[in-house]
Design goal:
Blueprint: E1 23-27, H1 32-43, E2 47-52, H2 55-63, E3 69-72, H3 78-92, E4 97-100, H4 115-143, E5 146-151, H5 155-158, H6 167-187, E6 192-199, H7 212-220, H8 230-241, E7 252-255
Parallel strand pairs: 1-2, 1-4, 2-3, 4-5, 5-6, 6-7
Helix pairs in contact: 1-8, 3-4, 4-6
Bound molecules: nicotinamide-adenine-dinucleotide.
Nicotinamide-adenine-dinucleotide (NAD) is lined by residues 28, 30-34, 52-54, 74-76, 101-105, 124, 128, 151, 153, 199, 201-202, 204-207.
Length: 262
């Protein structure tokens, strides 16, 4: 058993103060799924550090969660990430839970894409995930405890080329799923757990340019008849971060209203 495992029955993990005094770091926390995950941890008693590149939105978001700390940074800058995580560990103590939700979505037609576009998407979504996971993982492994949830996407399985996600976005998310499995395999048994959350279409600011008509069409095409909500994702993130998921390693949890049924 490690500090983040519950020695009793797995379901006992969920209580009103399930994450009391734990330190949760959430990237992409200025909006959408990341912000909702930060809210969920905060409501469960955790100390929350919120990371995002959008400094003004981030400080507004953090102001809504008393005691939360905002750390503006660009996850595609490896030095910024390493320095910020070292500072978080120094100032707030060891990170118990990392949720990595920061990413961009792009929807360019394939023949209009160029190498610069692919590099930008992969730099932020995939290489940025490497930087964030590595920065959090080292101290967790040294301590023998910690959980990591990386937010992937159904596009990582389905591919892009549709209406809301293109090939480099989908490739970046397939890469993220593979990153999670690689880390899970290498670090299983250290006390650190890593898993991927696989959202289907979810109504967040990521789709701010998608028309409400297209959102309705997307919702109608899903078995449950609605798009996901950020709190649907946050609940699953809490589960994956909790001792209730103590035997869940390197998994890709579909939270998509039955969209993939894989
Ligand atoms: N909304 C969906 O339908 C959906 C579906 C599948 C997967 N996802 C994934 O969920 C995660 C959260 O997305 P969301 O829907 O909440 O969208 P969102 O746009 O609300 O959140 C993404 C956040 O990441 C931040 N970000 C972007 N680039 C960054 C960078 N370089 N450094 C630091 N922060 C950066 C943005 O500022 C934003 O606040 C993403 O990984 C996304 O790919 C979303």
């Amino acid at each position: 058993m490690t500090a983040t495992e519950n020695p009793g029955l797995a379901w006992e993990a969920f209580g009103p103060d399930g994450f009391a005094d734990r330190l949760a770091v959430v990237t992409g926390a200025a909006g959408g799924i990341g912000l909702e995950a930060a809210r969920a941890f905060h409501a469960q008693g955790a100390r929350v550090v919120m990371v995002d590149v959008n400094a003004s939105l981030l400080s507004q978001a953090a102001a809504g969660l008393p005691g939360a700390t905002a750390v503006p940074l660009d996850i595609s800058d490896d030095d910024q990430v390493a320095n910020a995580f070292a500072q978080i560990n120094a100032e707030h103590g060891p990170i118990d839970h990392l949720v990595h939700a920061a990413a961009i979505i792009t929807a360019k037609r394939f023949l209009e894409q160029d190498v610069a576009h692919w590099r930008r998407v992969l730099d932020i979504n995939l290489v940025g995930s490497f930087s964030v996971v590595r920065a959090a993982l080292g101290p967790m492994v040294d301590r023998g405890a910690g959980t990591i949830v990386v937010v992937a996407s159904d596009a990582g399985f389905r591919g892009g080329g549709g209406l809301i996600a293109d090939a480099p976005y989908a490739a970046s998310k397939a890469g993220v799923l593979s990153l999670v499995k690689s880390v899970a395999r290498e670090f299983a048994g250290t006390g650190v757990r890593i898993n991927a959350l696989v959202p289907g279409p979810t109504d967040t600011p990521l789709h701010s340019t998608v028309s409400s008509e297209l959102k309705q069409r997307i919702a109608a095409g899903l078995p449950v008849g609605r798009m996901g909500r950020p709190d649907d994702m946050a609940a699953a993130i809490l589960f994956l971060s909790s001792p209730a998921a103590r035997f869940v390693y390197g998994s890709a949890l579909d939270v998509d209203g039955g969209s993939m049924l894989r």
